[in-house]
Write a structure and sequence with these properties.
The chain is mainly beta. It is built from three helices and 16 strands.
Length: 192
């Protein structure tokens, strides 16, 4: 039996990427990158409202190991969770870089509310191209979980406010969806 010769326009069997082309990720865009236990995580920048200091935190009812309480944000009570505990990463003592990232979470279609996430430190804002992101199939109780994907390289931080002047980051950034991080039970207990 004679096999056909490989041609230039046909993919080679040894090329995994040629056989299984990468589908561009819909997760491309800008992310607020922060640190937890020495690892980098990112929240979609369009979900982030602001970053506040930890002094404003008021202890509340503990519904789970990761709920911390609420903070008063211009007259609104905002629930706050410890993201280290929620993601089961190594805990550390809060220091001068520890802060709370306020992000808007979706409670129901068309209805959002702010929620606070205690993080070790905010690093910067980075842009990730579709080819830099690998989406995760991770599911939590049959629903998409908080882990949206992983960005490898390709990210860049703007220097001196100049979009064209970027510094590349070779690290891996775990991209998170803030919506599933706070349960309905936690919200009810913390906000009453």
């Amino acid at each position: 039996m004679k096999f056909p010769k490989p041609s230039e326009d046909r993919p080679k069997a040894s090329s995994v990427e040629a056989l299984f082309p990468r589908i561009p990720s819909g997760l491309a865009g800008k992310y607020l990158v922060f640190e937890l236990a020495g690892e980098e995580y990112g929240l979609p920048l369009q979900k982030v409202q602001e970053i506040v200091l930890t002094e404003a935190l008021h202890p509340g009812e503990k519904t789970s190991s990761y709920t911390l309480g609420t903070l008063d944000l211009r007259g609104d009570r905002v629930p706050v969770i410890d993201l280290r505990r929620r993601l089961h990463v190594r805990e550390k003592k809060n220091d001068f870089r520890t802060c709370i990232v306020i992000a808007n979470i979706t409670l129901a279609p068309g209805r959002t509310a702010p929620a606070g996430f205690l993080v070790d430190a905010v690093e910067d804002v980075r842009s990730f191209a579709p080819e830099a992101i690998e989406e995760t199939p991770y599911m939590e109780q049959g629903r998409p979980g908080a882990f949206m994907g992983v960005a490898r390289g390709g990210g860049g931080k703007e220097q001196n406010g100049k979009p064209g002047d970027r510094v590349a980051h070779p690290e891996t950034v775990t991209l998170l969806d803030p919506d599933p991080l706070l349960s309905a039970t936690d919200l009810t207990a913390l906000l009453g």
